[in-house]
Specification:
Blueprint lengths: L7 E10 L2 E11 L4 E5 L6 H8 L7 E6 L2 E2 L5 H5 L2 E5 L12 H7 L14 H13 L15 H13 L5 E5 L7 H12 L9 E6 L11 E5 L5 E5 L1 H4 L2 H8 L3 E6 L2 E6 L10
Parallel strand pairs: 3-8, 3-9, 6-7, 7-8
Antiparallel strand pairs: 1-2, 1-4, 4-5, 9-10, 11-12
Helix pairs in contact: 3-4, 3-5, 4-5, 5-6
Length: 273
């Protein structure tokens, strides 16, 4: 892989499901080692793009390149060893007896149990270190299922990082979290850039306030799976473009490098009740 190869490149990507277009004509790339985000309303195809980048979904049209390798021309199993995905809305049916540190260690094997594996001392030590990174070391021996939603998310992110992936993708990673839990996760994510070998990072969201100031490239989709804009957040996450993408009047406020969106009232087609 060339060091200058984009972490992700979508070229004229389209995706159909049961004769319905989920995505159409998507062109976007995340630079090597870069941090980016895909923003759009529910049903815009954001998660489909993540699954394509992870090799779990194939485009109907176009090509997908990840870490310098084209999907379909490189062993998917090899590619997945370099990638980690955390999907907040997915159910992770771990063995009920697994502790937080067990769940993190399972990331070495991509498994939902450790029953068939014997982690070595170095793997357990790495798991403990990553748990400490996400401020969860005191929960290491707690059963995963007894943790709060925010605590589970931090453990899942630690699990995703335990094998030092080259690309980390977070799909709605703060969904369902209260404000302190959300900010705890975002503070930790902002510190990833300080790692010796930080991964390229892709965030998927429809909430602007979740986007970290370090995000360099964004792809803005509408509800029909079409790209409204692509480029730096200053050029893509504007009042007019967001209003177009969400089909709703939106104003954006910038505070300390983070963006916050609010409604400008009812759109003309939706008068108040």
């Amino acid at each position: 892989m060339s060091d200058c190869s984009p972490a992700i490149r979508f070229t004229n990507v389209g995706f159909m499901r049961e004769d319905r277009a989920i995505l159409a004509g998507i062109n976007w790339e995340l630079p090597a080692g870069g941090w980016g985000a895909i923003v759009g309303p529910n049903g815009s195809g954001k998660s489909s793009l993540v699954r394509m980048a992870a090799g779990y979904l194939w485009p109907t049209h176009g090509t997908v390149d990840v870490l310098g390798h084209r999907l379909g021309e490189y062993p998917v199993s090899e590619l997945r060893r370099k990638i980690s995905v955390v999907e907040a809305l997915s159910i992770y049916p771990f063995d009920e007896q697994m502790t937080a540190e067990d769940v993190v260690c399972s990331g070495f094997f991509g498994s939902l149990t450790l029953s068939y594996y014997q982690p070595d001392e170095a793997q357990w030590k790495r798991s403990a270190n990553v748990l400490a990174d996400v401020r969860m070391e005191s929960f290491a021996k707690r059963k995963f299922w007894t943790l709060s939603t925010g605590e589970r998310m931090r453990v899942l992110i630690a699990r995703a990082l335990v094998h030092e992936p080259a690309l980390l993708m977070l799909d709605e990673c703060t969904s369902g979290l209260d404000l302190p839990s959300r900010e705890t996760v975002l503070i930790f994510l902002s510190e990833l850039a300080q790692l010796p070998l930080p991964p390229a990072l892709l965030m998927i969201t429809h909430h602007l306030e979740e986007l970290l100031p370090r995000i360099e490239q964004t792809l803005l989709l509408n509800s029909r799976g079409q790209a409204i804009a692509a480029g730096p957040p200053s050029q893509t996450l504007t009042d007019s473009l967001l209003s177009q993408a969400f089909d709703w009047p939106i104003r954006v406020t910038l505070r300390e490098g983070r963006r916050f969106a609010h409604s400008e009232g009812w759109p003309r087609l939706h008068p108040p009740l």
